[in-house]
Every structure is written in structure tokens, then in C-alpha cells.
Amino acid sequence: MILAGGRGTRISEESRIRPKPMVEIGGKPILWHIMKLYSHYGIREFIICCGYKGQMIKEYFVHYHMYQADTTFFLDSQERQLHRQKAEPWRVTLANTGLDTLTAGRVLRVRDYIGEEPFLLTYGDGVSDVDIGKLIGFHKARKRIVTITTVQPTGRFGALQIQPEDGQVLRFREKVRDDQGWVNAGFMVVNPEIFDYLGDGSEMLEAGPFERLARDGQMGAYKHDGFWSPMDSMRDKAYLEELWAGGIAPWKVWEESQEPGAEG
Q1: Bridge partners of 220?
Q2: Can you tell me the mean pLDDT for 116-122?
Q3: Those residues with Cβ within 8 angstroms of residue 213's Cβ, 6 or more apart along the chain or in another chain
Q4: Which of 6, 84, 107, 219 has the largest CB neighbor count within 10 A?
């Protein structure tokens, strides 16, 4: 399940014209990058919780084959022929979960598509090289309702110790990761018992429901010391674009032959 319904106000330069999960990295929506990671680990059934400008996500998948292939159009007969097409082995359910629905409500609204099965849950605006197989194994071994992937994000600014009397810098540490707290990176594994914690869905998932789960000892943390980056700002987007263009994107764990249209 991918939460893809928010307005993305912190990256409004892009989100004014498209939903945040459709903002592109290397010519592909960040949503595609997230799905490719899961697919690499054999997770190929997706429920996408749409909201703000959700029709653009639906249109992307309606025309997915045409986007991935070379296409010949026969204008006189209004037919088309696709060349070198390679479809992803994905089953994608696109659910309209409301324009302003909070995250707990979005999860609650797609309960019928989940049934009583455990499921994976993440946000549609962050990429990582987290090993999904190891994450699932960790979750099963701990037997808690929810396991979240946690990371210590690299600090964006140097840490300084300054003498108050004269402003002398006594100590400078450049972007020290150990100075950062652990944060929720998404990439969660969830048992169906979570629905008992969602109430009427009128809260942010990360507020009431997660607080109650933690209080009851039902939330585990899978510590990931590899790559993770959100895409909350144009600066984040430029950073991810630079990694992709340089061929050093850590989240690209799949092989070129796995990409649609790639020739073997």
C-alpha cells in the first residue's frame, strides 16, 4: 500500500501541476522508483491511495504501456502499434481515498482490498535501498503489529560548539550522522490488527494510531543504516536527480534488464 494522496505543499513548485508521487526523477515518477524497489523483492501487488490530483496517477497507469514503448500511430485508421514493449508484472489497484483524508483514513478506506492479510505500507515520496526481504523477516520474528523502517538522516548542517563570550568556534563537526535522532522512513510491515487502532480514520496515522501502538508495545523499529531520502523540497529533488544522472542512485537495486523496454 502506497500513500499517494497528500498535497505536497513543501514542494509546491511541482505539486501545483501534479501530485507529489508523480514528480519525476530521471524521467520517471518517484512512485515508479518505489514500486521498482518492491518489485525487485517480489512484491508486485500494489494498492495506491490516491487523493490530490489522483486522476493523473490513474492516467499514468492507463497509458503505461504507451509511455514505456515506441509507438506507431496509423492516423487514417486511428490504430496504434507498440514496439519493444515490456510490461511490469504488477497488479495495481488505484483507490480514490479522498482529497483531504488524513493518512489513517486512507488506510482505513482500502481495508476491503487488504482483507486479513499482512501488508507493506509506505509513503509515495521517499526512496531507499532498504532490503525488503530482511525487513519482512525482522517483522515476522518480533511478532508486533507494525514494524517501521527507521533511519538516522545525515545532518544538512555542520554541528558547532561556540564559546558564548566572544563567539569563538570551539568545535566543528560536519554533518555528523550520530548527532541525528532516528526517524520514520516509511517502508513498514503491518498486520491487519492495525485496523483496531485506526478508529474512524480522522487522525494522522503517525499521531494517534502509532502512539497507541507504541504504548501497547506493538510497534517495532527496523534500523536501516543504508540510503534513504525523502523528496520534500526542490533541493531534495535536485539531489536525487544528480544521483540518478550520475549512475550512483543507491535505491536502484534492480538490474537494467528489469526495466521496461530494455533490450537483452
Answers
A1: 147
A2: 96
A3: 145, 146, 194, 197, 219
A4: 107
pTM for the whole structure: 0.86
First-to-last CA distance in the chain?
A: 31
Q: Using 50, 70 and 90 to split pLDDT, how confident is the model at 177?
A: low
Name residue, grid cell 534500523: 223
User: Do the Cβ atoms of 106 and 123 come closer than 8 Å?
Assistant: no
- Tell whether the model's pLDDT for residue 179 goes beyond 90: no
* Cβ-based burial of 123 (10 A; exposed 0-12, middle 13-18, buried ≥19): buried
DSSP state of 224: -
Asked if 239 and 227 count as a contact pair (C-beta separation under 8 A), the reply is no
Could you tell me the sign of the dihedral formed by the alpha carbons of 150, 156, 159, 164, in that order? negative
Outline where the chain has alpha helix (H).
Answer: 12-15, 30-40, 54-62, 64-68, 103-109, 111-114, 132-142, 208-215, 234-245
